[in-house]
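hey all, quick one before standup. I had two proteins in the batch that finished overnight and I want to keep them in one place so we stop losing track of which output belongs to which input. First protein below, input sequence then structure tokens straight from the run.
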Amino acid sequence: MTESAFFSKHKHWALLAIVLLAGCATTGTGPEAPAAAKPAAATYAKVDWKTLPAVSDADLQAGFIAWRSSCTRLKNDAVWAKSCATAAAVSDKDPAAIRQFLQRDLDVYALRAGGHQADGLITGYYEPIYAGSLTRTAAATVPVYGTPDDLIVVQLDSVYPELKGKRLRGRVEGKVLKPYDDAGTIAAKGAKAPVLAWLTDPMDLQLLQIQGSGRVRLADGTQVRLAYAEQNGHPYRAIGRWLVDQGQLKKEDVTMDAIRAWARANPARVPELLRSNPSYVFFVRNPDSPEGPRGSLNVPLTAGYSVAVDRTVVPLGSLLWLSTTRPDGTPVVRPVAAQDTGGAIAGEVRADLYWGSGDAAGKLAGDMKQKGNIWMLWPKGMALPN
């Protein structure tokens, strides 16, 4: 039976299976949650360029350069091809030329939650660097798995366009496709998958999976870069939420540092904490380079100027205007490039700002839970996303 015939015969089963097995659909830094339904009210409100908050020339240039790097993937895109071709001739050393290009070629749309609410949530993420080894050692005992040999992935929108972005994941047992093992089972029994590296702390693996990419620092000082490859199909559940539900942390106190501190103080309960998130991410090993990790658009991310978005609202490759703050209240107002997606990034006024690699970026990313506003810059004359 062909795949098309199978799904024609079992369409209702396939729709139910999406709920049971839906997982990430990105090839970038983070697992993507099942798409949230759009509100009935308009998401995009056209506004004048003059309503945008002012940005510095340095931020304008950096944001423009980050966005223009997307054009390696968008040069043949129906929406962005013409703008990318024009942008190629714009000097990134000339702020006036950048502003002229943007205002001539692009319209501005304020993003609104439910058609009315302008304020949204801006969080941060980063590329962690963890100590580890390419072989198991007395200290490095936590495996980082590549894609399992027995993981089956079916892209459903190849048959049903209304299921855009939906994938079915599982394993075949006999002639039945069953859900793949959850994270707790994989941690206990392993997976039929290559081990790409070994880490020294199970919390490092959990946070590596949450970030979706990272580096392993070996004993000789060299680093191995790991990028998101696949996911087990189970829904992502925030371990911070579990700690709140267990009365271990207050909601307003949940940060990466707070979770780490709890784990150090409660080592016997760490396996229970990790089992609370059934999602499990598998990785691929990439060559090390000074570039940022590649996001869902498959271009290197730029620290401070690339964001993960809900691509049911903001198509990948879009240029956004972001107004938010750092955790210390310092303003962050700049153009940013929508180049990634993430499991917790769902909603109209929602973005996850990539801050770079290492501990300093991790501290900033872990503390980011800021209010913010987002405007989408969209090519003139092109239909808005639907």
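OK second protein, same deal, sequence then tokens:
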Amino acid sequence: MRAVQVVRLEGPGAVEVGEVADPARGDGQVLVEVKAAGVNFPDLLLTKGLYQYKPEPPFVLGGEGAGVVREAPDGSEFTAGDRVAFSSAIGAFAGLVAVDQGNVFPLPDNVSFEAGACLPMNYLTMMFALTTRGQLQKGETVLVQGAAGGIGTATIELAAALGARVISVVSTPEKAEFVKSVGSHEAVLADGFKEAVKALTGGKGVDMVVDPVGGDRFTDSLRSLAPLGRLLVVGFTAGDIPTVKVNRLLLNNIDVRGVGWGAYAMPRPGYTRAEWDRLIPFLEAGSVNPPVSGTFPLERAGEAVAQLDTRTVLGKVVVTP
């Protein structure tokens, strides 16, 4: 089969596309014919050897996707021909992938393979973040940093579907228009966002901040919280891991909460599927529909991953075998 391999840990420009052996389906695994694969920030880090999971090269890149079942274990809910989405640490940028059946999910007929390929990593993470870690309530206000990216757009769609008011922080006016098209109620520019948020909330502040960025926005994100507000730490795409002066937490009774989806889900059999089942009504209703700004063939997968380094991606990009 054709596949995208990381053969040297030299970044997305060094990935190679070629023929590799078809994967063998192991016990308890589903063999999926990949129709589309989502591109994520961990893919970029994996090409550089900077992710916490460090497979030895050569390995096939890609951590999530959607496609059609080719083979499934006896007794599985899946049969050949079923439309599915899946998550896997690696292996998705290929014609076929073998995935543990606990990480394979039924894909509603109204969801395209391209959209389905963007769901498992970001949307399961943010469902967990907003509900389990953030305890979001209908009518609350959520401030989203890095709102035009994959995590940001997932947050916007889910928070709005859960009944929250969403304010997005973006870097350009063009991105502001984009996030509004995804469902954000308001959008503000990163430069001076604290003052803009204060004005939009009548001086109260927001109930929750979702931060996949880190870096120098972090302190003003804390200052944007209302009393009893929560800041969710999702990642550090800015590169710098901020520190917290805990007196700020005390003074306004606010929380900083880590979001470690994998660490929570992996030791809980069945949890990932249960979270997916919570997503299905939103998918069927069309209130969750991941925005795909670009589709790349396997031969251009390195280019697709490199776009994450330049922060030019709006929503998600996908790779198609």
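Flagging for whoever picks this up: The two ends are 10 Å apart (CA to CA). DSSP finds eleven helices and 16 strands in the chain.
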